[in-house]
């Protein structure tokens, strides 16, 4: 097993101090404002604890801003008998929020990479998905960020990421089309240069579970 060390400058966590993060009290007051704007009374019994609950929920669903995705891939297992074929982790469920409406989009992520100097713990790939999903996102940005992190930290021969999701901002408001699926992909290394690798990836992703 080996742990890679990275320079501070390589870490990609937004700097909360530089962003001037508001206090919890300020965040709760903002929720009360939105409740009033929506037409309800934040002082009624059913809503009295809601601002605190919303802020607590935001800590989790936007917890990705405080996750260092690069660090999640630091530990590599080298003792795998020279295994060097693709590793594909598919059907990773995620929940994110679109940066345009702050409304959820959710779906599945599929990730493959060709290891070079050992393999990474499988759960860590799912954690990388969460690190980017738990932020305000576009699906395209999230897909690219996952691929960028795997490529820069693991330096694999190739890396493929596919994300398929439904955006509630298209289902419950606006154009109101439920059940629409959006698919985004990023192919790097051999997955970019060799169309056969893309086909193999898509075949594994689509292969029915048996
Ligand atoms: N490309 C992309 N678009 C997204 C994503 N999430 C939401 N959108 C779209 O962002 C667009 C925002 O469009 P705007 O015209 O600025 O906002 P709007 O008036 O609320 O648009 P409507 O949703 O059409 O009512 C919409 O077309 C959404 O469907 C995403 O992850 N990727
Ligand atoms: Zn949206």
Automatic annotation (TrEMBL):
GO molecular function, one term: GTP cyclohydrolase I activity
Any Pfam family hit: GTP_cyclohydroI
Quaternary structure and interacting proteins, as annotated: Homopolymer. Toroid-shaped homodecamer, composed of two pentamers of five dimers.
Source organism: Methylorubrum podarium
Keywords for this protein: GTP-binding, Hydrolase, Metal-binding, Nucleotide-binding, One-carbon metabolism, Zinc
Pathway assigned to this chain's UniProt record: Cofactor biosynthesis; 7,8-dihydroneopterin triphosphate biosynthesis; 7,8-dihydroneopterin triphosphate from GTP: step 1/1
Classification via Gene3D superfamilies: 1.10.286.10, 3.30.1130.10
Domain GTP cyclohydrolase I: 28-205
Residues engaged in binding Zn(2+): 98, 101, 169
Family: Belongs to the GTP cyclohydrolase I family.
HAMAP family, per database record: FolE
EC number per UniProt: 3.5.4.16
Top EC category: hydrolase
Protein name listed in UniProt: GTP cyclohydrolase 1
Catalytic activity: GTP + H2O = 7,8-dihydroneopterin 3'-triphosphate + formate + H(+)
NCBIfam families: folE, PRK09347.1-2, PRK09347.1-3
Designated gene of the protein: folE
Lineage per the UniProt record: Bacteria, Pseudomonadati, Pseudomonadota, Alphaproteobacteria, Hyphomicrobiales
Membrane-spanning ranges: none
